[in-house]
Amino acid sequence: MLLEDLATHCPLHHDALNDGYVIISYGLYRHSAAFMDAHRNLFPKSRLTVMGGCMVQDEIIYRVRYCNACRNAHFQWATQHHSFAGLPHMAEDFERILHMRFGMRTSVHTVPPEVHELMRVRKLVNAVKVLQGANPGVEIPELRAHMRYLARSEELEQAVQMMRQGGPHLACGEHGITLLS
Ligand SMILES: [Zn+2]
């Protein structure tokens, strides 16, 4: 295999790489030496998640090139070793995690349509007041946090759509946990 093929082909399996999207994992992760070893030797291009560092940044998803054979090898290894290292979120957890990370508050049940309009014209104090009226008993900091989520909700829904179409997910099936690509 030629050096110039490294961007398009798996160095281990020599298969052509596929394009996909993965969610960026923020936080400090320290993988075991056993995982790092397996990653290097058995599934170097599984790319089921990417690390974003410990500070949460604006980026939500990341475009990757991955190898199908690597993903299968990674999943096989994870199953054998009962390890979730480097694996993506469960499909049903993914949206909740994404929404929470960007400030969604479950205490805010009702968002009147005018809140979006007020936010659009940058009348944020009025937007908080309307939100507070619709959600009595919810504290101002909670409402403000939820508004930060609302400001990005369209972008988040787009990310969710992209992940549904092209992102890897784990799912619970009758034979235990399986990988949905
Ligand atoms: Zn591979």
Overall geometric form: elongated
Mean pLDDT: 86
The ligands found in this model are: zinc ion
Content-based structural category: alpha+beta
Adjacency order of strands in the biggest sheet: 2-1-3
Proportion of residues in helical segments: 40-55%
Structure description:
- With about 180 residues, this protein is an alpha+beta fold.
- The protein folds into two domains: about 1-85, no CATH class; about 90-180, no CATH class.
- It is about 45% helix and about 15% strand.
- The chain contains six helices and five strands, in the order βαββαααααββ.
- It has a three-stranded mixed β-sheet.
- α4 runs antiparallel to α5.
- The longest helix is centred in the last third of the chain and has 27 residues, at about 140-165.
- The chain is elongated.
- The model has no long low-confidence stretch (mean pLDDT about 85).
- The structure holds zinc ion.
- Zinc ion binds near residues 13, 45 and 70.
Keywords:
181 residues, alpha+beta, 3-stranded mixed β-sheet, two-stranded antiparallel ribbon, 45% helix, elongated, binds zinc ion
